[in-house]
Design a protein that fits this description.
Keywords: Glycoprotein, Ion channel, Ion transport, Membrane, Transmembrane, Transmembrane helix, Transport. Helix content is about 50%, strand content about 20%. The protein has four helices and five strands.
């Protein structure tokens, strides 16, 4: 009687462990799919792939003619802000080009190097601080397009290769853990059947 209860409890434990392992595998697959349709396209779409050093030539803030976040759509997040413009010398080609904060900045407003979020407080003070940092550093790291389809440069990529690897790390660990649980349960079942048969 005690043996039957023990076998039943063992089978329940194995079933729960299998469900946990399968759940982890399914969740990791869903995470892979979500990352594949949201983050990977932004990474592959970016043409600014080569890192170099840019020499800062001119930093200006246009207070009298504030830019608006206008991408042609009726967006309630549109608001006026001082327009920071940073001109740099691209050392790879020797051209004078506009420096943007990220790929997203160029899409949101091609006239300004930095586009603040509406939720940011003291936007003017922050833009002045960014301008001061650029003035103090004559050379800054930047990314440019080696193919030449984009003449502008960006200061930092939204999704660098290291960041993309970090994003894929968690679903990979979950997938590996789920497969390991399933494997261990199957091994345990095999050993139990083998010992019972003997």
């Amino acid at each position: 009687m005690l043996g039957k209860k023990l076998v039943t409890a063992q089978k329940r434990g194995e079933t729960r462990a299998l469900c946990l392992g399968l759940g982890m595998v399914v969740c990791s697959m869903m995470m892979y799919f979500f990352i594949g349709i949201t983050i990977v396209p932004f990474y592959t779409k970016s043409v600014w792939t080569t890192e170099t050093v840019c020499k800062v030539l001119k930093v200006s803030i246009k207070d009298q003619a504030p830019c608006t976040n206008s991408d042609g759509s009726e967006d309630e997040d549109i608001f006026p802000y001082p327009c920071l413009q940073v001109r740099v010398n691209l050392t790879a080609s020797g051209q004078e080009v506009m420096l943007y904060a990220t790929e997203d900045t160029l899409e949101r407003n091609p006239k300004c190097s930095y586009v603040p979020e509406k939720s940011e407080k003291e936007v003017k003070a922050k833009i002045e601080k960014i301008a001061s940092n650029f003035k103090n550093h004559q050379s800054v790291p930047c990314y440019y397009n080696p193919g030449g389809t984009q003449t502008n440069v960006i200061h930092s990529r939204l999704y660098p290769p290291k960041g993309l690897l970090f994003v894929f790390l968690w679903p990979t660990l979950m997938f590996t853990g789920g497969c390991l649980i399933i494997f261990l349960v199957k091994i345990s079942q095999y050993v139990s059947v083998l010992s019972a048969w003997q």
